Every structure is written in C-alpha cells, then in structure tokens.
C-alpha cells in the first residue's frame, strides 16, 4: 500500500506540473481535487510508513505509532469530504457549459456550487473541532459522517455527470461514450470503496470498545486503509 501511495503521489505531482507547464492549471474543481488528494495521500503515506516501522520493531517505544492520530485527523478524513463534494461542483460546471442557461439559472448554479463547497468545509472543520474534544472512539465514529456523505455525493453527482455526457450506456456512437464509461467505472469503484471504508470504521469502533474482540481490530484497520487508498 505504501508503494501504491508513492506511485499515486508521483502521478499527481506530474499531472500538476504538466498543467502548470502548459499554463492550463485553473483554480477549478479539478485543481482543488488534485491538491487535496496530494495532501491526503501524503498523510496516508506517513500513516502506512508508521505501521510498517511498528511491525518491523523499528518504533521501539511506539512513539510514532501513538502519534499517528493527528495524521488521520488532519490529513485523511477532513479533506476526503471536500474532494467528494468537488465531484458535485464538477457536474455543475459541466451542466453550465453544455446547456444554454439564462442569467438567473446560471446564477442559481453558482450559488449551488458555493453552497456545496461551503458545506464541505463546514463538515471538514466541524469534524476537526468535534474530535479534538474526544478520544479514539469519537474519531472513528465521527469519521462515518464524511464517509457516508461522500458515498452519497459520489453516487448522485457521478451519475449526473454520466447522464449529462452520455445517458445511454449502449449509445457507443456518442463521442462522449468512452469518457462516460470511464466515469461510470470510477463511480462504481469509488462507491464500493466508500462502503468498505464505512465497514472498516464501524469495525474499528466496535472492536476497540470490546477488548475481547481486539484481535480483529487490525483486519478492519487494513480494510479501511486499503479502501481509502483504492478510492
């Protein structure tokens, strides 16, 4: 998983550099997602490295292992919901470009776009404030809200994008068919990964609360991080 994350970070940086080189980097949903994904992947990379060091016995006093919570709190979960909601912003931009809109309708879409972004930031920083007053269990259960809402946004906004580009799955003559099929596959895999994230969080929360089930905790932990990386 560590090497997969390193490969993703490299790819993300290359894409950003290429966009800058050709002067095509604009501060839109794509750019925001690229930078937020980079931040989340760096945090995830550090978490997996800490787990690796702990397993190999290099973290003798568990200092880094016990310090991993801030990475989970400040890098992974908060920016996850922001990235998921940017999918909704992408659909709004796409719909605005592909349809003739009146000034009032276009203005309404802009309001909706900023509403989604504001809601994502409120949930993101609300999560930070909430978990800063709690313990491990509150972090795990609080993280369910961004994951569940992200799942809903992926399903709704992803399918709206597909419908806007090419609503008929069998319409292979449509010039947007290949793009729509790629997005359809990404939505399916992304939603499936979100479900695994939720199961992982629920499992970690439940087994952490019951010591007799503590031996199962690592399995749910691996499931969550695998799903996050896969998505």
Task: Characterize the structure shown.
The protein is an all-alpha fold and 231 residues long. The protein has a single domain (2-230), classed as Rhopdopsin 7-helix transmembrane proteins (Up-down Bundle), CATH 1.20.1070. The chain contains 9 helices and no strands. It has helices spanning 2-21, 29-55, 63-66, 69-98, 103-131, 136-142, 144-166, 177-209, 217-230. Helix 2 runs antiparallel to helix 4, helix 4 packs antiparallel against helix 5 (103-131) and helix 7 (144-166) runs antiparallel to helix 8. The two termini are 12 Å apart. The relative contact order is 0.09.
The fraction of residues in strands falls at under 5%
The share of residues in helices is over 70%
Global mean pLDDT: 82
Biggest β-sheet, characterized? none
Determine the N-to-C terminus distance. Answer: 12 Å
SSE order: HHHHHHHHH
Alpha carbon gyration radius: 19 Å
Weakly predicted, low-confidence segments: none
CATH architecture: Up-down Bundle
Give the number of domains. Answer: 1
Count of beta strands = 0
What fold name goes in the CATH topology slot?
Rhopdopsin 7-helix transmembrane proteins
Number of helices: 9
Morphology call: globular
At the first level of CATH, what is the class? Mainly Alpha
* Secondary-structure content class: mainly alpha
